[in-house]
Amino acid sequence: MSLQVLSVASEVYPLIKTGGLADVAGALPGALAAEQVHVRTLLPGYPAVMTALGPHVEALHRWDNLFGGEARLIAGQAAGLDLLAIDAPHLFAREGNPYLASNGTDWPDNAFRFAALGRAAAEIGRGLVPGVTVQVVHAHDWQAGLTLAYLHYGDAPRPGSVFTIHNMAFPGQFPAGLLGALGLPGQAMTVEGIEYFNTISFLKAGLKFADRITTVSPTYAAEIQTPQNGMGFDGLLRARHNVLSGIRNGIDNLAWNPAQDLYIPARYDASDISPRAENKLALQSRLGLKQDPDALLFGVVSRLSDQKGLDLLLTAIPTLIELGGQLAVLGSGSKWYEDGFRNAKAFHPGLIGVQLGYDEGLAHLIQAGCDALLVPSRFEPCGLTQLCALRYGAVPVVARVGGLADTIVDANEMALASGAATGIQFAPVTLDGLQYALRRTADIFRDKDDWVGMIKAGMSTDVSWRRPARTLARLYRDLAGA
C-alpha cells in the first residue's frame, strides 16, 4: 500500500515555473511512485494552473472567507500530476510571475496569498478535507513555510512533516503587525516562534516546527549552519542539526535527454557525441556568434544576480576572450547585470551572445551545444543546470560550494588519469579563482582525449531522482511509522 504524501509548493513544472523549485516539485512525484509513495501536490490556483486542470475538476472543500474572499479546494490531474489547487481568484487570478507584479515589485498581499497555501495544507494534513488522507506533509521553501506554523498552533491530529529549504536567501519576511490577520497567536511572535529580526518569517516557521528539515545537497546542509551562509538562521539550524539533512536534487531524465530532445537539431548519446558539433553551430547561429567549430564555447543558463557570481564573469570576459573563447548567455535578473551583458555583447560582436529572459528551447540548445557550462555561484543550494550539463556532455565549470561541490568531480591530475573527472571546480569564489578555472578549462580543452573522457564520464553519471527519491521515501516512512 502506498504511503500518502501531500507536497506543498508555490510552483510546479510544467504548469508554472520561475526556478528550480518548480522542477523539483514537478519531478519528485513520478520518482517517488517507484518507491511506493503516492504524492498529491497542493499549489495555488494561478491562471495557468486552472487552465491546465480544465473544467472537469472536483470541489473537495470550500472557504467562505480565505483571507478576504471565497475559495474552493479542487482536485484534478494535469501533466501527469495528481493535483490539489486553491481556487481563490482574489488571491491568485493574476497572469505572469506568481510573486511579482508587472512593475517587478512583490504583490503587496503576498503574505496572505502564501498564508492561504499554508492554511489549506494544514487543514488537509489534519484530515479536515473528506476523502483526502495524508500521512506526511512536505512543504517546500518559504512560500509553504507557514504550513508548519498552522499545524503547530492548530489542533491534533498532526501528520509527520518535512520542510525543504531550496534557498536560504529568501526568508519570506513580512511585518509583525500582520500576525493576527494571519490567524496566528501572540506567542508565535517570539524567538521560539516565527519572529525573525522583529518581522514574521515564513521560512523560520518551517525551520522551527517541521519534524524533519532537508535541503537540496549535503554540503549546503553543512554550510547553512555557519554564520557566513545561515542568513541569520544558523543558530536555529545548529540547534536542530539532528533533524537536518541534505538530499541531493536530481533532474527529470525524460525532460532532459539528448537522445530524444526535440528542442535540439542533432540528437546523441554517450556512445556517439559527434552530433554535438552540429548543435554547437546551431547555437552560434542562434545567438549571432562567429561560426567556429574550434572555439571554446562557454554557456550560462542562470538568474543574473550577485548569488550567481556573474559580476565575476563580466569582469573575467577579457580573459575568456584571450583564451579564444566565446560566451552564450541565457537569463534575466537585475538591470545592472542585464545591461552588463548587453554591453559586453556590443563590445565583443560575434564572440558574446545574449538572450535575456527565459526560453526552454534555448536552454536545451545551450546545454547541447556549448563546450563548457559556467556556474560561478557564491553559494548554491544544489543547482540543476550543472546536472543538465552532465547529462548533455557540456563540461561544468563550477565554484566549489554547496551542491556544486557535491555533484562535480574536479579534473585534478588523478581524477583525469582514472577517468573519474566530470568538470572543473574552483575556490575561492573570486575573480582570480574564476580566471584560473577558465585557463584550466582551456588547457584541458586542447587535450581532446582528456576532454572527451570528461564528457563521457559526465554523461554516464546518474543525475536522476532515483537515489534521492529512495532516501526521501525512507525519511517519509520513518515519520509515518510505516
What tags apply to this protein structure?
single chain; 482 residues; alpha/beta; Rossmann fold; 2 domains; nine-stranded mixed sheet; six-stranded parallel sheet; alpha-1,4-glucan glucosyltransferase (ADP-glucose donor) activity; Glyco_trans_1; glycogen biosynthesis; GS/SS; alpha-1,4-glucan glucosyltransferase (UDP-glucose donor) activity
The strand count comes to: 18
Provide the helix percentage: 25-40%
Number of domains: 2
CATH superfamily of the largest domain: Glycogen Phosphorylase B
In DSSP terms, counting alpha (H) and pi (I) runs of 4 or more, how many helices? 18
* Distance between the amino and carboxyl termini: 10 Å
What low-confidence regions span 5 or more consecutive residues with pLDDT below 50? none
Shape, per Cα inertia axes? globular
Quick one: CATH class of the largest domain?
Alpha Beta
Mean pLDDT: 97
At CATH level 2, the architecture of the largest domain is 3-Layer(aba) Sandwich
Per CATH, what is the topology of the largest domain?
Rossmann fold
